[in-house]
């Protein structure tokens, strides 16, 4: 019996590299490879971690008795390489260059480079050219910049020099939208959902026909466990010029040490709920404020489609909290019914997206030339 080949999924995060193998829709094995502070301090930039992260993936394969030649395709998380459409992209040399020279350094930018290099080495070993029908290929699916080119109306801020950024939790937001449409027996193209991704950072996304039409980013809306969210710009400007913080320290206060961390010294919602159960009134107040601000962000996107919303979906790690989702539901369900799809589905979303490409259900694009960085 011929062994079915696997889809390798590569998903690097700040302090870990997640790897998994899927046989069609079945998870064969997975591992979250943790990277300690002592290991990471040896690298002065994210790009310097390339070989380190690649070896972590190869080590995962070896430990599971797998070689790259056992792979059918490689599904990679994608970072910020310009304004891309949602869906799949084949990783070629241009995509590698754009990822390496991204203006937004993040470990996700390393994923397509790792996938491309592994595929290239396999093809060379087996005497395949990149264009051979049986060539191993690496793909990116729903990168963080996969919102398409937004309508100009949605990019205007209040200062011409600053345009609204369209970077968000595209991968998980689209994954739960695809799942919701399937549950409802609808075509994704016929749906209009608001998806609140509730994690260390909170983003609220308006998906119409499976595309992100508008969003409230994690640096412009309510605060979250680790991020300050939008602030009074005049007071923020005054604080930035006060001499109390360097730019790096200020950036850390906004992202990493803001939100629940700033008020309560913790970013784990479960710990906050324990404090509340013990009668901590400050913890209860701050959590209620975060929920209220998130609800306001959700409802604000209803104005974009004049209130015509099919469903509000609550997802992400914090959506496991019944306390949080019940309070959010109470505040926003006047706009549309609320469904909870808790957790993150990044690994499945990557694998299933590329499976659809392999089956011919979706087509993979190539990176537009204008997004390539010199």
Number of DSSP strands? Answer: 11
Helix/strand-derived class? alpha/beta
Poorly predicted parts:
370-374
How much of the sequence is in beta strands?
15-25%
Helix % is 25-40%
The count of helical stretches stands at 12
Question: What do you see in this structure?
Answer:
The chain is α/β, with parallel strands linked by helices and 374 residues long. β7 (192-198) and β8 (202-208) form a beta hairpin. It has helices at residues 37-40, 50-63, 93-100, 110-125, 170-184, 233-240, 247-254, 260-264, 269-277, 281-301, 322-332, 346-358; strands spanning 6-12, 16-23, 26-34, 71-76, 88-90, 138-141, 192-198, 202-208, 211-216, 311-316, 338-342. The longest helix has 21 residues, at 281-301. Mean pLDDT is 93; it is low at 370-374. The radius of gyration is 21 Å and the shape is globular. Strands 3-2-1-4-6-5 form a six-stranded mixed β-sheet, sandwiched between helices. It has a five-stranded mixed β-sheet with strand order 9-8-7-10-11, sandwiched between helices.
Concise summary:
The protein has twelve helices and eleven strands. The strands form two sheets. It has a six-stranded mixed beta sheet with strand order 3-2-1-4-6-5, sandwiched between helices.
